[in-house]
Design the sequence.
């Protein structure tokens, strides 16, 4: 599967998603098609299910291991992870994902096509209807595509990709630093990741404001800009740092970064991009867009250190 990641090169507020199906059967045995999506930037390739080797001492949701060009990777069964009743439905496609320096396969029933869409057309899911495994939904003419939070899903089965809260020892290392007057805005659509980041920053003593996507973050920034202008003070007197994810409904982190950098009063506001898509090439592009620092999702222990660097 050829990837160009062209949408990560510039401020387009667009993404490409791979649509796939993980179907189930209803109580009468009838097929219920279920449509899902994943950002193409996370997809390494799509293959037919090769020979599986059973893994020992793993979760029931880990279907087994496969060999892919001299590399052995785990394969997760999405039907089991999503608690679906599948009966005799056979899943024989594997979407190979790579992010956070982890490669993993996910077993699905079928893969249809790639769609290029605007983040404005990706809606945040209602917590009352969808689980925390879903980070967005796309309304098509005849179906809804649910965008899955693969960072959370994979983290539950691959310890090396998991976000680990800072230990009490790590927080005590900088206990003598007074951060109580510093405010950080964190924008991330995943409740799991946003809570983990904000807990670490609050545990270190920072004031933290939260936004569920780039649009909400930009709205908060604009309101603070207006207040600062009315009070005759600089923006950074009230907010010292922006930390943003890239993939978010309504407005992604790259478009948010671009909007911030176009405002004269915000030119000295430091921006940290915290993303699983932080490849070497993307890091260079995002620096050019105006971000001071780029961190990967497993790099949580460095979050407070870099926050200190840009706020103290």
Sequence:
């Amino acid at each position: 599967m050829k990837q160009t990641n062209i949408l990560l090169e510039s401020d387009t507020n667009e993404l490409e998603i791979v649509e796939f199906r993980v179907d189930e059967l209803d109580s009468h045995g009838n097929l219920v098609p279920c449509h899902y999506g994943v950002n193409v930037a996370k997809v390494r390739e799509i293959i037919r299910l090769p020979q599986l080797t059973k893994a020992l001492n793993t979760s029931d949701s880990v279907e087994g291991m496969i060999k892919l060009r001299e590399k052995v990777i785990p394969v997760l069964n999405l039907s089991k992870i999503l608690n679906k009743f599948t009966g005799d439905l056979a899943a024989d496609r594997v979407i190979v994902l790579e992010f956070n320096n982890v490669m993993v396969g996910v077993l699905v029933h079928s893969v249809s096509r790639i769609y290029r869409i605007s983040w404005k057309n990706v809606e945040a899911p209602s917590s009352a209807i969808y689980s925390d495994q879903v980070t967005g939904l796309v309304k098509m003419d005849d179906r809804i595509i649910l965008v899955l939070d693969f960072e959370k899903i994979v983290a539950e089965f691959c310890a090396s990709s998991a976000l680990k809260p800072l230990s009490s020892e790590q927080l005590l290392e900088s206990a003598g630093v007074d951060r109580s007057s510093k405010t950080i805005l964190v924008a991330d659509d995943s409740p799991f990741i946003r809570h983990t980041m904000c807990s670490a920053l609050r545990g270190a003593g920072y004031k933290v404001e939260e936004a569920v996507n780039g649009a909400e973050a930009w709205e908060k920034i604009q309101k603070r800009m207006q207040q600062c202008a009315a009070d005759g003070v600089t923006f950074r007197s009230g907010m010292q740092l922006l930390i943003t994810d890239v993939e978010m409904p309504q407005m992604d982190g790259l478009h948010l970064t671009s909007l911030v950098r176009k405002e004269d009063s915000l030119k000295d506001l430091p921006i940290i991009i915290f993303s699983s898509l932080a490849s070497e090439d993307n890091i260079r592009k995002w620096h050019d867009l105006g971000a001071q620092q780029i961190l990967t999702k497993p790099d949580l222990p460095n979050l407070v250190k870099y926050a200190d660097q840009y706020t103290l």
The first helix runs from residue 78 to 81. The longest strand covers residues 110-118. The mean pLDDT is 87. The two ends are 45 Å apart (CA to CA).
